[in-house]
Write a structure and sequence with these properties.
With 324 residues, the chain is α/β, with parallel strands linked by helices. Helices cover 36% and strands 19% of the residues. It binds iron/sulfur cluster. Iron/sulfur cluster binds at residues 1, 30, 32-34, 37, 39, 75-77, 106.
Length: 324
């Protein structure tokens, strides 16, 4: 998955609080082989130390110290059988605390998980679909049959879970491959989806945060074309750019036609954290940097998660002060 797409409320510029995102483990790895996998680029699943109970504890302790904006499971594949206990712990804790919780899935196991998801009632599920054609999607994602399973899962989930859980499709826009997505709006309308998120392809940096891969002016042109196609089918398109790497507001000054694009960044007062299965945690746009041995690690029972997140929150400020 890319890191984007799971803000629980699309348009809440005044929102504030901690946005806790999670990578859940799978002993055998993900069932797909996407070349752009952010988790693989970040080398996130080196070891597994945390248990489902630890994840629930992390959320509860974090909530004691500062308001939680939302929770989101963003990878590997949260609906694989071996990942489900972790997913369940996160969504269940969110439900218990009354915090919006969501997940990104590749959709291949969605049909099987519908009953469980009905009980957990996430606020949002984003299913990854990168083309209207099965051949292209399966080639990008590295598994024949992935597209058909995801589309079937979406149809079943829309019937069983909407409207209390909002179903969304999320697509990666690859550089110079807009044509992969041109027919998506009519597919989405046909399968009962009215919200579409596009994530421009991201790269992960080594020493510093990465960002979008494509040339920005070409990217904006492609997004305008896709937005118009979506509008014609009654689909609301959102471009996720959590860390404002696209500089949409600034680009609108020189090209007012770009104001038509609905580009969403994280609200200013929302801090995003990403916890991996070994307890390492990144904050802000460090999420687009590779993990290293130095990435801070939360060890349950030795430090309160609220204090741990406070330490992370202060770290970039200290680094900024040093650079100034
Ligand atoms: S489905 Fe997601 S987690 Fe799995 S390989 Fe693809 S991008 Fe990575």
């Amino acid at each position: 998955m890319v890191s984007s797409g799971l803000q629980p409320q699309p348009d809440q510029p005044d929102a504030a609080g901690q946005f806790l995102t999670f990578i859940v483990p799978s002993a055998n790895g993900c069932n797909l082989k996407c070349s752009f996998c952010l988790i693989r680029q970040r080398r996130e699943i080196a070891e597994i130390y945390l248990s489902p109970d630890d994840l629930a504890r992390f959320i509860r302790e974090a909530a004691v110290c500062a308001p939680l904006f939302a929770l989101a499971v963003q990878g590997y594949e949260p609906l694989l059988p071996e990942s489900l206990p972790f997913t369940q712990a996160i969504l269940g804790t969110g439900r218990f605390l009354g915090i919006p919780a969501s997940l990104v899935t590749n959709g291949t196991k969605l049909a099987d998980a519908v009953s469980l998801l009905a009980a957990l009632a996430p606020s949002k599920i984003a299913v990854s679909l990168d083309a209207a054609s099965a051949d292209i999607h399966d080639r990008i994602r590295g598994l024949t049959g992935a597209w058909a399973a995801a589309v079937r899962g979406i149809r079943i989930a829309v019937d069983a879970l909407a409207p209390s859980t909002r179903l969304i499709v999320s697509s990666v826009l690859l550089p110079s491959r807009r044509h992969y997505l041109d027919a998506m709006p009519s597919l989405l309308r046909e399968i009962g989806i009215d919200r579409w998120i596009i994530n421009p392809l991201l790269r992960v940096g080594g020493d510093q945060a990465g960002g979008p891969v494509a040339d920005r002016s070409r990217l904006f042109r492609d997004l305008l074309i896709l937005q118009e196609a979506a509008r014609r089918e009654g689909i609301r398109l959102t471009v996720d750019d959590e860390f404002d790497h696209l500089g949409h507001d600034a680009a609108c000054v020189s090209d007012p036609s770009l104001r038509a694009l609905h580009v969403r960044t994280l609200p200013t007062n929302v801090e995003i954290f990403r916890l991996t299965p070994n307890g390492q945690c990144s904050v802000g746009d460090d999420i687009l940097k590779q993990e290293t041995f130095d990435t801070p690690r939360w060890v349950p029972g030795t430090v309160h998660a609220g204090d741990f997140l406070e330490m992370l929150r202060r770290k970039p400020q200290a680094a900024r002060r040093q650079r100034a």
